[in-house]
Amino acid sequence: MIRTLIAHADDNMVLAQRLGEWVSRAPELELDIALANLGLDHLGVARALYQRAAELEGDGKTEDDYAMWRDERQFTNLLLVEQPNGDFAHTIVRQFLFDAYQLQLWEDLAANADDEVLRGVAAKAIKEARYHFRFSSGWMVRLGDGTDESHRRAQDALADLWRFTAEMFEDPATASYREAWDGIVAEVLEDATLEIPDDPYQRSGGRQGFHTEHLGRLLAEMQWLARSHPGAKW
Amino acid sequence: MVTRVEMRPDARSVAASVVDPEIPVLTIGDLGILRDVEVDGDRVTVTITPTYSGCPAMRQIEDDLRKALTDAGYAEVEVRTVLTPAWSTDTITEEGRRKLAGFGIAPPDPEHEVLCPRCRADGPRLVARFGSTACKALMVCSSCGEPFDWFKEL
Prior knowledge:
CATH superfamily of chain A: Ferritin, core subunit, four-helix bundle
Shape of chain B: elongated
Helix content of chain B: 10-25%
Strand content of chain B: 15-25%
Distance between the termini of chain A: 32 Å
Number of strands of chain B: 7
CATH topology of the largest domain in chain B: GMP Synthetase, Chain A, domain 3
CATH superfamily of the largest domain in chain B: Fe-S cluster assembly (FSCA)
Largest sheet of chain A: none
Number of strands of chain A: 0
Number of domains of chain A: 1
CATH architecture of the largest domain in chain B: 2-Layer Sandwich
CATH topology of chain A: Ferritin
Structural class of chain A: mainly alpha
Strand content of chain A: under 5%
Number of helices of chain B: 4
Radius of gyration of chain A: 17 Å
Largest sheet of chain B: 4 strands, mixed
Largest interface: A-B, 30 and 22 residues
Number of helices of chain A: 9
Structural class of chain B: alpha/beta
Distance between the termini of chain B: 37 Å
Oligomer: heterodimer
Order of helices and strands of chain A: HHHHHHHHH
């Protein structure tokens, strides 16, 4: 149970950090706010899950022990969420692929998770995931069915990120989400006039702590303050 | 044992009157995020729930609750956060909806009809799904051109 909580918490923590990197840099003020808001929701979910893991593990652990004091090999997030922001299309494609997965995940866990707190977090997160999905799928269509340039960038981002999608369904607990995920992704990509990449190459390892080169740098930035000034408070 | 000392202001009213730091026109009572207030002698336990998982105002609300209840004469204040059942805009009170509209924020409407808080016209255009806070979206009135926040249905 603790491993499951931490894996989902890590997904949300790492994605929140990535989204936070857009603050003050997004293409429009509204998008700056939107991406920060998505990030805050993911951060809130991560905190709730880390807190639950800390409670179950005991030993006086806190959420910060997981977020700030573990190293790259101990993070078990999916490789997809640690991928760099790239251009706006990359960020939207990453968000869209992940939102479509979280729709299935939270719906399942809200009803079926063994842990009562996890069910509660999922019941809250599903409402947010639906809203995130409306945002990211709306942008998929605007980019894909937009200008030649936006279409090309969205298609390039799909080609870059597709290899990290199978990993979401590798765990037997999430394998059954694949069919629904395939369906909604195909539907939106069709509206967006984008092609599903036919490259069969897939990477995984995130859940075992084997990451792409990008996670280490993300953690270095994220954990720097807590480690340089242990116990620092606002 | 749960008792109430009549000399002090009622803990529930004190807690319910703490304002939301991001939408100061609403109290946490209006917003429906105050779940429970329990008094045991000098000790008060307040239970609140966040609007959104990532609501950045929770710490501030916790701090404001401690101050308000301490000022009201309660020696020990504990604030708990719960996630279940998940908050919904349905728990915003009628009074809260009136205050929002009066403040220029379109309240969430059970019939999903968003009206311009200025001219009451319907059919505004969505400018951005995420507005000045996590719980609001940015709209513009198609009739009078007023840009306004809409408290999103959740």
